[in-house]
């Protein structure tokens, strides 16, 4: 029997501000709470497609929700068709510009559409898009902000609890020597088999990134992430060419076109698109095809619950970035077993809300 395609009836958006178990201190800012927008696509036959967006600032959810209201006005009453919707909505917002909060709204809507479709099919998202649910290698990206070396080493050890075999450290201290000291302190404390990634969060100039990167070569880092401004692809290419340690970028790719430009420039050794910036599930699939064609390893940026499904269908799947920021408001938070993310085998993405927690953290 053919699958019944659900019809979109309404969109509900709610904002929450969830305390982080471990504050995140980067070269850009320190975050102690996670502003998150919950999206519910109510369809016929009681199907609810769900997604969430990490909004970076408490004022952002209401802006994104305004765009979702406009999307609902345009598309309610239509059968769910995320690829078609994506094209039509990009056209709708072409003059306004499909960037920033508009792009985030489009991505969240797209994820919720795919969740609804795969629920209607009675299949996990990974299976619905042509793969199989399977465990995905995960690194713990909670905490490990800009802190003193021994404190960072203590936290890195603590982040291995639960079976992790990889962690990520934030860099971008005032001096190269300070960065080197913390990397060495953490690396000394971790078992040799544990992978250690490092993220500069766009803190450096190209010249300084090459200088610091060369100092870090040979220190056992799996990659150096976003050393300079995210869209300086020529500068990133100079850095990648100069360093032995792989360069990772991609969380700020604004759609697959930006990723194609970066790859053409030779800007990096690895890529890690972000679900809400690359264009949701639809955008991710396009990015995964680019990575496969280029033969370059592709990881994820946050959103582990959905990204795990997508990495299962990514030919050059590398690492899943695990953060627990949404865990308090999820009915079933993601599990990590022996360093691997366990992908939900429920129909759809497996996302459902813990409504008691949602009420507790709701932004009025």
CATH fold-level label of the largest domain: TIM Barrel
CATH architecture of the largest domain: Alpha-Beta Barrel
Radius of gyration: 20 Å
Total beta strands: 12
Poorly predicted parts: none
Order of helices and strands: EEEHHHHEHEHEHEHEHEHHHEEEH
Strand order of the largest sheet: 5-6-7-8-9
> How much beta, percentage-wise?
15-25%
**Would you tell me the overall average pLDDT?**
96
Helix percent band: 25-40%
CATH class wording of the largest domain: Alpha Beta
End-to-end separation = 45 Å
Largest sheet: 5 strands, parallel
Number of separate domains: 2
**Could you state the CATH homologous superfamily of the largest domain?**
Enolase-like C-terminal domain
Structural class: alpha/beta
Instruction: Label the overall shape.
Output: globular
The number of helices is 13
GO molecular function: hydro-lyase activity; magnesium ion binding
Protein name: Mandelate racemase/muconate lactonizing protein
Pfam families: MR_MLE_C (PF13378), MR_MLE_N (PF02746)
Keywords: Magnesium, Metal-binding
Task: Describe the protein in words.
The protein is of the alpha/beta class and 364 residues long. It has two domains: 8-123 and 355-361, Enolase-like, N-terminal domain (Enolase-like, domain 1, 2-Layer Sandwich), CATH 3.30.390.10; 128-342, TIM Barrel, CATH 3.20.20.120. 39% of the residues lie in helices and 20% in strands. It has helices at residues 60-75, 82-92, 100-121, 125-128, 149-158, 176-189, 206-216, 233-242, 256-264, 275-278, 280-294, 304-312, 355-361; strands at 8-25, 30-43, 48-54, 136-140, 166-170, 195-199, 221-225, 247-249, 270-271, 320-322, 335-337, 340-342. The strands form three sheets. A five-stranded parallel β-sheet has the order 5-6-7-8-9, with helices on one face. It has a four-stranded mixed β-sheet with strand order 10-4-12-11, covered by helices on one side. It is globular and about 60 Å long.
